[in-house]
Amino acid sequence: MAIPLSDHDIEALLYICTYGLTRRSSNQQGTKIDSWMLSSLGFNHCIVSLDLRNILIRVSMGIFNDDDLFHLRIFNAICCCHYQFSVGYGRPVAIDSSYADLHKLILQFPTATVGDAIKVAELELYELLAKESGQDSAGDDSYYESSTSSPILSFSSLTEWRSSWEKIISKDITQGLNLSYYFSHIMKGRRIIQEKGHQDDPTLPLAYNTACQYSFEIINRLLELPESSVRGTPSFHLSQIVYACATLFDFLDTMKPTERKMSLNLISKVYWHLNKSGEQINVATDTIARLIRKLVELASNHQPMEYKQTVGFVGTGSITEQYIRKRHIKRRDSQQQRRLSVEDLPGLAKGGRVPIKESPEPFSTTPSSDVEFQLPDVSNFENFEDFFYDIFKPEQAGL
């Protein structure tokens, strides 16, 4: 911090935090990045170098310029990255709450884009989760049984957030807001299970259903994304995909045989999809795929998962500079160039809850029998159907 960084230097820190970028050679594993620590450093450099106070003054006077817009984009992205890894790693937030009012300042710019609003929406969600992390499972956030045919928990704060940003969420082509919304439910469901697992509480079956259904939602969103989008996915969203797979793995023993087979099917699909999408382009996707493969191998050997085994995977990896440039151009031509309409913002958004797509059936909470499972090499198969057929051979049809 002795020497203030330029705005482009801070932008470089942002890319490292977001994508886990490291310099690596063919015989090196690359340096592991602590995005929580690096994003807190980036925030401090924003305070020193970006002249945020004068940006606020200029905006209040109706003065808008491209440099201020660029600096607010960097500031919001750094803050969002820090909130994400604070929530994901269970670490404290190093951002002074007095700067929170600056996040929405960018929406006042006449040249603000849909991409800017997406980042503000994402910031608002993770700020909410960070504030709730110090409370118990209920805290200030009431939860109740959803009225859908499959009984799950709904959380008032998440419902209000989604209703407020409904139009912006529908325009997010990266699906990042949906992934974060689903991740929030999994995290809250698991927290209730952790706090009440030793009790005979009627909320527990709903918490299991909630965590599992939203895990399915995350996986299904991933499988719907084109390969180009998967390769450019930020490392935190890849970690969310792993979190969803780990959740299904953790709850395998509470599932019926058909539910267990369906879960392993989806986990193996994630492995297939990331393996094919990340070939020779994104080491991060291959890293995540290897972790998912480890989950499936543990399931086949009936071994409990030790989370220390994931430390070398989540949040690490690299991506080529060429692909970063390609992806930046692609995003700039899409939502980052699409002008923001005031009708899309929360103040004018319509109320009402947005239903999620239901998973095939609710989950039971009684232990079931074990299942034999081995994951073959993806490179030996031309399509997922053959790959999956080899996993679940005819003699295992009764699983």
UniProtKB/TrEMBL annotation:
Keyword tags: DNA-binding, Metal-binding, Nucleus, Transcription, Transcription regulation, Zinc
Region spans: Disordered: 351-370
One annotated GO molecular function: metal ion binding
Subcellular location: Nucleus
Domain of life: Eukaryota
UniProt cross-references to CDD domains, sorted A to Z: fungal_TF_MHR
Name this protein carries in UniProt: DEKNAAC104783
